[in-house]
Amino acid sequence: MQVQRLITVSLLLSLSGLMSGCAEPASESALQNDLNNNSCLSADLVLHNTTVYTSNDEQWQTEAVASLDDKIVFVGSNADAKPYMCGNARVLDLAGKTVYAGFTDSHQHIEGVGRRTKTLSLFGIPSLKQTVSSIAEWADTVPDGEWVLGRGWIEREWTDQERFLNKHDVDAFTQNKPLFMPRADGVSALVNSKALALAGVTRDTPDPEGGKFERDPDGTPNGYVLANAMNMFRAIVPQDTDEYLKDSLLRGLQANAAMGWTQTQDAGMPYRIVDLMKDIHREGNMSHRIYAAVPVLEAQEMIKRGRETSADDMFDVRGIKVFIDGTLGSRGAALIENYSDAPHNGFMNRITKEALVPVLHDALRNGIQIQTHVIGDRAVRSLLDWYEEAFTAVPQAQWAQSDLRWRMEHAQVIPPVDQQRFVDLAVLPSMQPSHGIGDLNFAGDRLGAERLEYAYPWQSLVDKGLMILAGSDAPVEVGDPRIEFYAAVARKRLDGTAGDDWHPEQAVSRKTALKMLTIWPAYGAFQDELRGSIEVGKYADFSIFDKDWLSVPEQDILKSENLMTIVGGKITYQKSNVN
Ligand SMILES: [Zn+2]
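^ thats the input. predicted complex w/ zinc ion below
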């Protein structure tokens, strides 16, 4: 690379010398200036001799891209990129590799992604027995009186028993240590007897509004607690220091950059975290961009502060995150009809309509984006109603902007009649392909065959012209663009198998999947003019992998490796030995 650049420069120098003829001998720096002005087009990074997928329909695939500072200055052929391979440009020959427009995870929780590296992670453990022994080993390292903390257990993936954990699984080895471990979905948790005692929860404690204690036959809470019942334990676990939280954020940023993410969209970032993120931005340590929504509990603060964005678009706080129902796995998602495997239809009382309506109105008047967690068809339909009512109740003349781009997070069960309402109301579905394959094991039981036809209905939504914003919901899922892309196009388990009725027709094309991870999330963050595709004038955000996801066999997508992540022209992750 160095050699090639030197040759180019010296060739140009000699040409320039010839042309200057008998004019006064120019100094070397003047010559260099001359070169920069005339023959060498300014760039500080050139990626060439590769496959570039731009996510731009006008120029879908090309060979080279150049950037200067944080913006793209050239997209095109190797031949046309030549004039940029000079001066101080860093030129990377990426033969055999693939450059994608920088990937965006449309739904993440970065503090949790970083925290996951510091507490017991129960993700991916294949059995109940092994899960309990991992907890026992971890608990053994925790001094008496201190909390045993962890998360990520998920019974539906266990091969021995698929049941929720309860205190009887862990009490024997945690007698003197309270324990709190949220399930992978974060909306239910395991606690032990010590924790129940510290929280003052007994047989006589009623279920809180929007929550539930599972109970033994005699009515005593059994240690599996759902939704708002978790708050009683969150209130008594040791509070996190700023230092601990900031460390989690930095770890999350680095882990995400290593995965190939150039932006994550945070679905519920409290202002305490927002302010720590601002410090990290000031200190120049953001390894990728963040677009954030604050929790609805802090809606008033959001309305007061308004949208906050950094000049370099690395950090943008513009939304409010609302929770309505629970999850399908824990039978907390709000369905119109009863569950097929339980005599109830879930719940959607994590916030009341009365409390939410004024927030929706304020959001319209202040240009704030609403992102609502809706999973069951009852939650989806209700929120479409509430959005629509707000659009009518607040006259358009009072809206801060007509382009709202309000979102529905997850939106897992959408009857066809409501799919059309997303189009009519211009509401964006923000969905997690990995949930679509993770839920494969139980969704049929929960929903029955009829409702399964419109569960995770990706292709149906795309056919209607909707842009799906794809995300991982990490730390609920791994948070890996390979898995999200694979899940969207394969709609099969990671091992390549799928259930009989898993509606393969709802898998999407590879081109669509790429848009779901690039230009469509950019649209969902009002940034489609700034990023999301490889076009001149947009931010130089690239994800570079060793395999071409648009042509390799499905399973090879999962085997590919992230080689380099570039954000605003800066390399934020690089696998060793690449250029
Ligand atoms: Zn989430």
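Residues 1-35 have pLDDT under 50 and may be disordered.
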